[in-house]
Amino acid sequence: MTTITTRTVEYPADALTMIGHLALPAGVDRRPAVLIGPEGMGLSDVERRRTDALAELGYVALAFDLHGGRYLGDPEEMLARCMPLLADPDRMRGIGHAALDVLRAEPRADPDRIAAVGYGTGGAIALELGRHGVNLRAIGTVNALTTGRPGESARIRCPVWAGVGSEDPIMPPAQRDAFTAEMQAAGVDWRLVVYGGALHAFHHPPVDHPVPPGVGYHPQHAQRAWHDIVDLLAECLPVTE
Questions:
Q1: Helix or strand run (H / E) with residue 164
Q2: Residues in domain Dienelactone hydrolase (predicted)?
């Protein structure tokens, strides 16, 4: 394990002051970088720990914010903000680009070697960056089988890895089929992993507040999904090239 440094970063997006979490690996050289997007509840210690873990592997990593420094533990409040956001690709892209600008401006980050990894709403934002033609080395998503506007996925210029629980009622088989059909028609190098028996947000440890129906933690698959994401980064964005 390497020594890492972390700090919070403030930046404007979506008419809010966002508060992200930046983690830097040991050393002074430029490193490949990873943008990390949280579930719809917002940035929490779960994403901060994953950001730190990526820095320990040698990446510059930034977990971006969705709600101006707030964590929305009330499911109704979360859905009231996230549903309109998910229906507005331009807003999602704005949030993603603002965070991406922060990451690219970090002196330790190689602006030509960046991947985006996201969970739920954060994963949808990662996909929208790809659909907007951003130069990414890889996109990894969990619980984010969102479809885009016709033809825009043809702008994705990197491999896309997606993970979903087989029992996720928010991302049912019909949604999986629509997502994979879009990726295939666009000529994207895509992969989909279906984790048997897992619900929505299966990667997220239990929380001390109510959650929407169909959400549940699956510790074995959570670990497997994390390893799959690390493997994606090792393949598409190795620390040393």
A1: strand 160-165
A2: 20-235
